[in-house]
DNA sequence: AAATAATTCAAACGTTTGTTTTAATTCAAA
DNA sequence: TTTGAATTAAAACAAACGTTTGAATTATTT
């Protein structure tokens, strides 16, 4: 799946608009205007609005867990350290590609049997497998508990990150952090999330119930 | 805010369709057809599609945390028990009104300054206040830790529940639970979620880091 | 330089959109 | 039973939608 500069411009503009206004709430005319390209170019390059959405997923979903995979193969790291680094990595990755993840959440709520859902599920299955490798390792070293529901663990991790993403304005307001500039606040919630999820992970993986 | 039978029929049909296909993905003609009412009735009763959405939120958001409030005032319960019951209550409530919560998640991702977002934030503020009461009580009784980020705790609770709601098909598949019928599976994930979140809550509230 | 392919563009296509209009009908109070 | 308001129904509205067309332009190949 190779995209030229113009296609990438369209993809990233569409991604931004889909994230902000939803797929059905964004018109192809709006995308064309915002990307400074002609209306027909979208059909020309991608075939349709639907296929443009699929292209966004192909563009983003592939090298998503590349860094995590290399993590697993590093035998100098303890499973506990690996899980900590996993948390850091996932939070940073989602923060970087916030627009895309907003689209993914919306898509997951609606779609059931389309191509995009299939892509998401394939990616999810791969991620679970990678994390399971770390956990199995930790169990063999008697560091982790025997019974661990990996998908549930991932659900709490991703769910917490997404929920923070969607309600960060409220979180900021409650904690009276309006004085912080946007960058500082984003940095702050990343740190908070990382510490929070690492604590939760240790409970689930190590401590007794 | 009083609605007659016909209005409620429209509201609940619209809720179901908005949850399944999104606000922009659902046409007023579709709602009218599905609810067996005339197209013009929607404008007649609610003014516009936008106001229909607002009506759904007014219809659902009010008595949402009614049960939880009575929980707080019951002085025969320990704060720990109260938090356990809170988890049960929230999971049951969201499960019951799944369609509405799907709409809410989608709305949160997009909306920034509209009436619906204001309604959601007001509700959230009230909920945080109620939970804070329980937690303060637990802290005074030296049962809970001193520093607790209540909004963050709620974010993990709600985020985990929502993420399970959105990815339950995948969860079912990974755990090979396709043989269970829908009701049994729904019951199962509720139990799993309840135990899971109670464990997490105890870590955050009681245990040392 | 000529020919061929790839891309850009404005205009138009037929649908569908949310909403309004206007007339018919139902219903309750006088 | 008459009167007036509330409700229902079908038709019409302009605007916006995704997509296609065919000519103009640019780029690549021969």
What does this structure look like?
With 209 residues, the first copy, chain A, is mainly α. Chain A contains ten helices and no strands. Chain A has helices spanning 5-21, 28-34, 39-46, 49-61, 66-73, 79-96, 98-110, 115-140, 150-174, 182-205. In chain A, helix 1 (5-21) crosses helix 7 (98-110). Chain A is globular and about 60 Å long. The mean pLDDT of chain A is 93. Chains A and B meet through helix 1, helix 7, helix 8, helix 9 and helix 10 of A and helix 1, helix 7, helix 8, helix 9 and helix 10 of B. Chain A binds a DNA duplex (30 and 30 nucleotides) through residues 6, 27-29, 37-44, 48-49.
pLDDT under 50 segments of chain A (min length 5)?
none
Q: Write the element-wise H/E pattern of chain A from the N-terminal end onward.
A: HHHHHHHHHH
Largest interface: A-B, 46 and 46 residues
Q: Which bin fits the share of residues in helices of chain A?
A: over 70%
How is the quaternary structure best described? homodimer
As a percent range, the share of strand residues of chain A is under 5%
Number of strands of chain A: 0
Q: Which descriptors would you attach to this protein?
A:
209 residues; mainly alpha; 76% helix; globular; DNA-binding
Offer a quick outline of the entry.
The structure is a homodimer. With about 210 residues, chain A is mostly helical.
